[in-house]
Design a protein that fits this description.
Helix content: 25-40%
Structural class: mainly alpha
Strand content: under 5%
Oligomer: single chain
Number of strands: 0
Radius of gyration: 16 Å
Shape: extended
Length: 74
C-alpha cells in the first residue's frame, strides 16, 4: 500500500470541516456565516434535489479547558 499525503503532518484537516456534522457557529466568523446561510438548503432542499433528508439529529461532545467557557458558550 502507498499513501500520498499533501499536508505537513498526518491527519491535518481530518476533522472539523467534515461533511459528517453540520454545526452552525463552528470555526471562524466567515465559515460560521457561510454554514448558517447554507442551513436552509439542508433543512428544506428544493424539489427534486433529493428524496432523502440531508440533516439528522446526532450526538456530539465539545471539550474545552479552563478559560474556554466563552468560546464553548458561543
Amino acid at each position: 500500500p502507498l499513501v500520498l499525503e499533501a499536508e505537513s503532518q498526518p491527519a491535518y484537516h481530518s476533522s472539523g470541516r467534515s461533511a459528517a456534522l453540520y454545526i452552525e457557529g463552528y470555526e471562524n466568523s466567515t465559515v460560521a456565516r457561510l454554514t448558517a446561510k447554507s442551513g436552509e438548503v439542508f433543512r428544506q432542499p428544493t424539489d427534486g434535489f433529493t428524496e432523502s433528508s440531508l440533516l439528522h439529529d446526532r450526538g456530539g461532545l465539545t471539550v474545552g479547558g479552563r478559560g474556554d467557557e466563552p468560546a464553548l458558550e458561543r
